[in-house]
Amino acid sequence: MRDHLTFQLGDFTTQHGATLRGAHLAYTTYGELNADKSNAIVYPTWYSGRHWDNEWLIGPGMALDPEHYFIIVPNMLGNGLSTSPSNTPPPYDRARFPHITVYDQVAAQHRLVTEQFGIERIALVTGWSMGAGQTYQWAVSHPEMVERIAPFCGSPRTSLHNKVFLEGVKAALTADGTFNGGWYGETWPTTGLRALARVYAGWGFSQAFYWEKEYEKLGYTSLEDFLVGFWEGFFLDGRDPNNLLTMLWTWQNGDIGLTPGFNGDTEAALGSIRATTLDMPAEKDLYFPPEDEAWAVSLIPGAELRVIPGIWGHFAGHGSNPTDTEFIDTGLKQLLAKPGGLA
Amino acid sequence: MRDHLTFQLGDFTTQHGATLRGAHLAYTTYGELNADKSNAIVYPTWYSGRHWDNEWLIGPGMALDPEHYFIIVPNMLGNGLSTSPSNTPPPYDRARFPHITVYDQVAAQHRLVTEQFGIERIALVTGWSMGAGQTYQWAVSHPEMVERIAPFCGSPRTSLHNKVFLEGVKAALTADGTFNGGWYGETWPTTGLRALARVYAGWGFSQAFYWEKEYEKLGYTSLEDFLVGFWEGFFLDGRDPNNLLTMLWTWQNGDIGLTPGFNGDTEAALGSIRATTLDMPAEKDLYFPPEDEAWAVSLIPGAELRVIPGIWGHFAGHGSNPTDTEFIDTGLKQLLAKPGGLA
């Protein structure tokens, strides 16, 4: 696990009006920023992901090659490394942590990119899942900066069904009395976390993934072994419940139409995107279905929709299936070979 | 709500070896059995459904017309009306209620049909969801009796993904400490029931159903109103948690291959079906996807697959959407006009 650097945000005021005093972004970088600062890529994290969880898509010979690009991976506010319920002192700590919008996430990242590095143009923003949501937000918040975007397995606006899926995730966690409205003590609500994991398990991969027992390729020896070993293990791995709920709120309320100036008009926000866009949803993604992205792409000038084929569902973008990784990497290479939308 | 009749099963021994002493089936009938007892239809219930929940598919001018057919609706063991955790005296009460297989359900129903009514041939068995599972089981358990089957939105074997969906449902309910391993008191684990309802909400209808806000057609005024008014209301409406878990176990373990004589060979069990078969999965059913049923139908001699089109997902078979109801009713009419498999 690569160590992270810290960018001090100072007093960070959220879109909803709270001020996190002494806030920070944890981030890391790969490669070197070139002299004219034209080779920057921003690659935000996903729901509960940390910067090291993005490394599968970075490497020599890949689209995100540190020999050629300066790749910045900022950790989301709420993920436990950047300012989060778990590391904020009172009074904004724990269950009192304020709501963070996707707009806020990108506002913080924009400060890192401009103040820390003096970058004025970004060659590419890309990301998986909530990272895709932040990718769309970058293109809308800073159309003058972002040359290309490649969201994969995500959306510019969280759909109603996606919100319902997340309601189930949230309800399972908070049904555990130990959660205590977010004021749990040193004993975490592990029953609730395990329940959340089991709810999530049905959504993360497709029906066909389970039918074909693809989890065996990941080293799991039975369905129950996958549920315990992968899913419960995933959410018991230091993932603070309040952090999970903070990020969940961000996800549920994701909508580029809520960017100041758009008055909730998602279609207008999509129409404002100037970046060259390659959108890659996964064929059997159960909460970011490709139909939704066909709608989004139809509203972004010149955008391309390229569906990741196969049965891994949402986790096509998780880096665990070599076929899907190659598909995404190929898409990114082809996008980077195209002129940026600001050219 | 129509009253029910009671059939005494006496000592009912389950497939797993428990004996429920003084067990009973609650059931109701529509229409009259004709002189040669050739007009019987069996229409089992679904997960938490009661006999009155099946009435939407029964009526004058419909396929299931009481003027022509004698329609028997047996309540599933575990549904709260037939023998269930909630109405069984100690020692097999509540959390100690034994596991009931789909095979057991049909064994009990077979006794009702033969002992109470002296019926030797059944013109049709049909049912939604778990009712579809019982429909398949009838054709495998009693090939000499069943002339036609029309399972809709169900399967002959619960798929691995479907089991995972149900794990999430179960985990949400049991995360509530009030559940207390099934030994809750007069205070029910309503937080867990509401959590279960929210988990279920994402699965019952399709992504597109929510995108199109089809719930407004059911009289719900917002997404949250649908989650509370329909879903939480559904599971808080007298649905005993232990009953829900008993039926959930039956569902998770559904497999016609577990019928005695088939040694777990689901394909052989499908191949043994002699009834004329019309299988109607729903296009966007998230836990009984049509691909799975294409597989099942390919193994049943002469069976027809007819996919219910549209965006209501699993609830296409719930009787709430007139278009889907008409599609199913038309299918049943056409099936009843065909020769039975035993002709």
Descriptive report:
The structure is a homodimer of 343-residue chains. Chain A is an alpha/beta fold and 343 residues long. Chain A folds into two domains: 5-158 and 255-336, Alpha/Beta hydrolase fold, catalytic domain (Rossmann fold), CATH 3.40.50.1820; 162-248. Helices cover 35% and strands 13% of the residues of chain A. Chain A is built from ten helices and eight strands. Chain A has helices at 102-116, 130-141, 160-174, 190-204, 207-211, 223-236, 241-252, 266-271, 290-299, 322-336; strands spanning 5-13, 19-30, 40-42, 70-74, 124-128, 148-152, 276-279, 304-305. Chain A has an eight-stranded mixed beta sheet, sandwiched between helices. In chain A, α2 links the parallel β5 and β6. In chain A, α1 (102-116) packs across α2 (130-141), α3 (160-174) runs antiparallel to α4 and α4 (190-204) packs across α6. Chain A is globular. The mean pLDDT of chain A is 97. Chains A and B meet through α3, α4 and α5 of A and α3, α4 and α5 of B.
- Tell me the quaternary state: homodimer
- Which stretches of chain A of 5+ consecutive residues score pLDDT under 50? none
The figure for the number of domains of chain A is: 2
CATH superfamily label of the largest domain in chain A: Alpha/Beta hydrolase fold, catalytic domain
Radius of gyration of chain A, whole Å: 19 Å
Given helix and strand content, the structural type of chain A is alpha/beta
Largest interface: A-B, 42 and 42 residues
Helix coverage percent of chain A: 25-40%
Strand content of chain A: 5-15%
Major sheet description of chain A: 8 strands, mixed
Total of helices of chain A: 10
Count of extended strands of chain A: 8
In spatial order, strands of the major sheet of chain A run 1-2-4-3-5-6-7-8
- Order of helix and strand elements from N to C terminus of chain A: EEEEHEHEHHHHHHEHEH
* CA-based shape of chain A: globular
CATH topology name of the largest domain in chain A: Rossmann fold
InterPro entries (chains A, B): AB_hydrolase_1, AB_hydrolase_fold, HAT_MetX-like
Protein name (chains A, B): Alpha/beta fold hydrolase
Pfam families (chains A, B): Abhydrolase_1 (PF00561)
Domain AB hydrolase-1 (chains A, B): 63-302
